[in-house]
Design brief:
Layout: H1 2-31, H2 39-49, H3 62-84, H4 91-111, E1 114-115, E2 134-135, H5 139-148, H6 150-162, H7 166-180, H8 183-187, H9 194-210, H10 214-226, H11 232-245, H12 248-262, H13 268-279, H14 283-296, H15 301-314, H16 317-330, H17 335-355, H18 361-385, H19 390-402, H20 406-413
Antiparallel strand pairs: 1-2
Helix pairs in contact: 1-2, 2-3, 3-4, 4-6, 4-7, 6-7, 7-9, 9-10, 9-11, 10-11, 11-12, 12-13, 13-14, 14-15, 15-16, 16-17, 17-18, 18-19, 19-20
């Protein structure tokens, strides 16, 4: 008898507690019914509602979570209006309420799918689909509210990113992605353009990069391109991520894709592809790739210089010298080309010294010094164009020393 009474008391207390929580929910609904309510009024209402989100009697009701979502969105709207009229708001806080609203709505959608039953207690089955019949009460309104705020998620992600809240920014853009591709958006024919969805994916990649989550960053950058958003920054950031991951195979794949889209804008993609061929000793393929590039842009000094590098690696510097000369013919102000031409003449002079060990000093100088002078002409050009290149400085010092040009050597060593 005592145990039974104890259980009755517990049931009564639970019933009172459940009633109290439902009254809280109903009271919150009444408190925000006034459209003129301030942001602080909504914030207070959300604070009162939060215990109901975890109470046994109300936490599994779609209504509870949907109400929380609406309030969070209302707070965002109020703060946005305050900002629009020129008053200062906490943009991070404002964006956070938006993402909170999304999360509350997701919980509501999950709970709003209630299976229907026949009179005998068996699940009701749809004869056409063979699936269980599920009724919803709030889902349509929730989906409409989310779609209504679609563009706000894009801008909120930007505010969160700029304030250094990168995981939250990622979540805001993920919400954008999910809403944009939802069945409701398709039904209402309001799915954004693929390139816009791709742009949000790109931003997510940047947010992941900031937290050193390189794998997710690469996935987002790849998704961005799949959606047709193929700005140069997408490729460049992806390459940066892949280098940090040490994924050389994918670096080459992305560089190949980038070269097809932006090859003329940046030679780094071509360099990556050529280096890959050179690492595999595929000289013919590397040269063919460069010849195609030169055909499209015959005045590009870097292309000729790269071709010279390939020929030098495959054969020797003498075979590469005519190509290096073409590079500086295309652009006399290209420092790398001037250096490579000068370096080839320098190597030629050193080889003459090596091949003529029995010549007198005077005879050797007559043979070698004119070649050093040739090298000097191009190397001094390279130095004028880039005074910080240590390779240029090193060879110049050696030539000045060999030619007895002490004043120039001292000037260079200052």
């Amino acid at each position: 008898m005592r145990n039974r009474l104890f259980h009755l008391i517990l049931l009564s207390l639970f019933a009172l507690s459940s009633l109290a929580q439902q009254q809280v929910v109903d009271g919150v609904k009444r408190s925000i019914s006034d459209l003129s309510a301030s942001a602080n009024t909504y914030k207070a209402a959300l604070s009162r509602l939060k215990p109901a989100l975890s109470h046994e009697s109300t936490k599994d009701k779609a209504e509870t979570w949907w109400l929380a979502g609406k309030i969070a969105f209302d707070i965002y709207d109020k703060m946005q209006h305050t900002k629009a009229v020129g008053n200062k708001v906490d943009e991070k806080e404002m964006a956070t309420y938006l993402t909170q609203g999304y999360n509350y709505c997701k919980s509501a959608l999950r709970l709003d799918s209630v299976p229907e039953f026949n009179h005998d207690g068996t699940p009701k089955i749809d004869r056409k689909t063979g699936r269980r019949v599920v009724k919803t009460k709030y889902s349509s309104d929730i989906a409409a509210k989310l779609l209504e705020n679609l563009q706000h998620f894009a801008s909120a992600g930007g505010d969160l990113y700029n304030s250094g809240n990168w995981p939250e920014a990622w979540n805001a853009w993920e919400a954008y992605h999910d809403i944009a591709l939802s069945a409701y958006a398709r039904e209402k024919k309001k799915v954004p353009a693929d390139t816009l969805i791709g742009k949000m994916r790109f931003y997510q990649g940047l947010a992941s990069f900031q937290t050193s989550d390189f794998l997710h960053a690469h996935q987002c950058f790849s998704d961005a391109r799949i959606y047709g958003y193929k700005q140069k920054a997408v490729f460049d950031n992806d390459l940066n991520v892949l280098v940090r991951m040490g994924d050389t195979t994918e670096v080459v794949n992305v560089a190949r894709e980038a070269y097809q889209v932006h090859g003329a804008a940046d030679i780094q993609y071509l360099r990556i592809l050529i280096n890959d061929h050179l690492n595999k000793l595929q000289y013919k393929e590397a040269t063919s790739l460069l010849d195609q590039a030169i055909k499209k842009d015959p005045n590009n000094a870097e292309y000729y210089n790269l071709k010279g590098v390939i020929i030098e690696q495959e054969k020797d510097y003498e075979a590469a010298l005519p190509i290096y000369l073409k590079a500086i013919e295309a652009d006399p102000y290209y420092p790398v080309g001037q250096y490579d031409v000068g370096r080839c003449y320098y190597l030629r002079a050193l080889e003459l010294i090596k091949k003529n060990p029995n010549l007198s000093r005077s005879a050797l100088n007559d043979k070698v010094n004119p070649v050093f002078q040739q090298a000097l002409f191009y190397l001094e050009n390279a130095y004028e164009l880039n005074t910080a290149d240590p390779d240029v400085i090193k060879i110049l010092k050696d030539i000045y020393y060999r030619l007895g040009m002490g004043e120039q050597l001292q000037e260079l060593e200052r």
